[in-house]
Design brief:
142 residues; alpha+beta; single chain; 4 helices; globular
Length: 142
């Protein structure tokens, strides 16, 4: 069973190992998360960590949309799940919780899918592909 924990003060135990795993796969977004957190943790609307059996399985974050948008928007970002926890619903659990939190504040939620597999994931979560925006996919309720 996955337990989500809101990160308020320090990045969670196990974050460095998760960051190293992401780097080894060629993903730098957890390194960027650590840098952004060290510089200004207040930039995040939320950071959630997923644990199973006391072990960190994944993380995801929510920030204000950094690009100009037609209305207030939040962006889901820095989502990463360990290889050992993939295909177990961890990413979906994190994304779902972040989306619910975002929709309590705005009606436009964006993501930037970095690759075709990520695009498929976001589309399975109900996000629609968009062209001509600073983000690749967006979610609007309704």
């Amino acid at each position: 069973m996955v337990q989500l924990v809101r990160i308020l003060d320090d990045l969670p135990d196990g974050f460095e190992a998760l960051r190293a795993e992401a780097e080894a796969e060629g993903h730098r977004h957890l390194t960027r998360l650590a840098q952004e957190w060290a510089e200004n943790p207040g930039r995040f609307a939320a950071v959630l960590a997923a644990f199973a059996g006391g072990e960190l399985m994944g993380v995801g974050a929510l920030t204000p949309e950094p690009a100009p948008a037609p209305e207030p928007a939040l962006r889901m970002r820095r989502l990463y799940v360990s290889k050992a926890a993939r295909r177990q619903g961890v990413a979906r659990t994190i994304a779902s919780a972040l989306l619910q939190e975002a929709l309590d504040q705005v009606s436009l939620v964006t993501v930037h899918a970095g690759n075709p597999d990520a695009a498929l994931f976001w589309e399975a979560q109900g996000f629609s592909p968009v062209a001509g925006a600073a983000w690749s996919h967006e979610f609007r309720p309704g």
